[in-house]
Design a protein that fits this description.
Blueprint: E1 10-13, E2 34-39, H1 43-46, H2 52-71, E3 76-79, H3 89-100, E4 104-108, H4 113-125, E5 129-133, H5 142-149, H6 158-169, H7 212-224, H8 241-254, H9 256-262, H10 279-283, H11 289-301, H12 307-331, H13 334-337, H14 359-371, H15 376-389, H16 394-404, H17 410-421, H18 438-444, H19 457-463, H20 469-480, H21 482-486, H22 492-499, H23 503-518
Parallel strand pairs: 1-2, 1-4, 2-3, 4-5
Helix pairs in contact: 2-7, 3-4, 6-12, 8-11, 9-12, 11-12, 12-17, 14-15, 15-17, 16-17, 20-23
Length: 523
Amino acid sequence: MSAAPQNARTLVLVLGDQLSHTSAALSGLDPERDAVLMIEAPFEATHVWSHKARIALFLSAMRHFRDELRERGIKVHYIALDDSACKDLPGRLREQLQRLRPSTLRLLEAGEWRLQQDIAAVASEAQVALRVLDDTHFMCSRADFTRWSAKYGRQLRMEFFYREMRREHRVLLDSQGQPEGGQWNFDADNRKAYPKAGPGLIPSAEAFAPDALTQQVFAEVQARFPDHPGSLKSFMWPVTRAQALLALQTFIEARLANFGEHQDAMWTATPFGWHSLLSTSLNLHLLDPREVIKAAEAAYRTGRVPLASAEGFIRQVLGWREFIRGVYWLDMPGMAAANHLQHSRPLPRWYWSGETQMECVRDTVQQTLQHGYAHHIQRLMVTGLFALLAEVDPKQVAAWYLAVYVDAVEWAELPNVAGMALYADGGRFTSKPYVASGAYIQRMSNHCSHCKYAPTPKDMARTGKPACPFTVLYWNFLDRHEAELAANPRTALMAKSVGRLDPSERSRLRTEAQAVLAAVDLL
C-alpha cells in the first residue's frame, strides 16, 4: 500500500458483499482518474463472534475480486487486516479519504443499516460528496418495495409480492400470462419428509479446494481469530464468480429435481440435503439472481425438473429473498430492537458447542460449526424454534445467526430471525408465530428415534423417556400467550387445545416448563 496521496476524481467503495463486475458502482470508471477502495476491517469479524469459515469466505472472495479488478486495469486501493491500527471500517475509511482526497465517494447501497449510516457520517465529516447508487443486483429496488408495501399497510405478505414479481419479470408464466401449472405456489408439494429408510444417495454439491490465496486467508484467520467458533477443515464454498457459476450448474443438473419435494426434510449427518448452497454466492453478488432464476426455469421448460421443484426454488430467490430485503430496509432500525413477546433469557451455552442431548439441536449446531451452514428448516424449526420457545432475547439470537452462518448478511439474517423465527415483530410479515412441538421434528426427521427425549406423551409412555423440551415449552408458549393466539384465526385451534386443560394440568405444565427453562444449559 503506497503512503503517497493519490487523488482520485471518484473513489468507489466496494464492500465485502458487493463482488460483482456488473455493479452499478463500477460502471463508467476512468482508469486514469478513478479508483476502487476495498477495506478489510477486524471489527467486522468480531462485533459478533464470527465463525472462522464466515470470516475466511468474505476475505478470500474479496481478495480474489481485488485481483480480478486489477487484471482489468482498475486501480484498487486495498486495505488488508494489518494495514491500519484502526479496527473498524468507518475509521479505516476516514483514513483513506484523508489520504486519497477524492472529490466523490461512490457507494452501492450497503447490505447493513449500520454501515450505511457510518459511511454517510464519515463522508460528511471528510466533506466528500457521497453518491449512493441503487443496488441493481436486486430485482426490486428499495423505492419500489416501499411503494408496493404502501398498498398493504401494517401487515405485509410475501405471497402477494411474489406474484407481482412473477408478473413483472415474466417468470414461470404461460402464454396467457397466467402461472404455469394453474397455480402460483406449489408449497404444499414441497414439505415431504425423507422415506423411513432415509434420504438415499444425494448427489454432492460442487466443492472447491482452497487455492493458494484462500490457504493464505486460512492461516491469517487461524492466527488472528483462534478462539472464534467453527472450523475451516470442511471449507468448500465458491470464492470467485467462475466457481459460483459451476456451483449453479451442478445444482441445476444434479440436485434441483429433488429439491422441492424434500426441502423441509432433515436427517442425521445429512447437512445439505438437496439444497442449492448458492446463498453465499448470491449474497456476495458472485451470482446474479436473474441468471439463477433463468437457469431453474429453463430446467423446468426443457423437462429436466418438475414444476414444483423449479417453482419452490424460484420462490425462495425471486419471492422470499427480495421480500425480506425490502422489509429490512423498510423497518430498520426498529427491526433490530423489536421484542414483541418481551423475551429476555440468555442464549443457551450449547448454541456455541452443540453439546446438548437434544439430538435435533445437536446435529444442527454441530454441522453449523463444521460447515457454517444449516438449511432453512433447521434454522427456523430447530435452533430458531427452540430460541422462541425458550424465551431467548431476540438480540442475542440474531447475533448468533449473524455470527455462525457463512451466508449471513444482516439484510437477510435479521428479518428471518426477528420476523420469521422469533415473531419479535409481532407478525409484521408472518400470519402467526411458527411454533410446534417435538412431534413436528419427529415427522420431518429421524432425530427423535435415537434421542434421549420423547416428542409426545405416547412416546413417553411407550419408551419411558422424559418429555422433549420442545414439547414442554410448546405447551408453555400456548399457555402464556393463549389470549393472543385465540384472537388470531391461524392459531385459534392452538389456543383451544390449551384452553381445554384443567387447572391442575396447566399448573403441572407450568412447573415442568420452569424446570426446563431453569436447566436449559444442561438439556
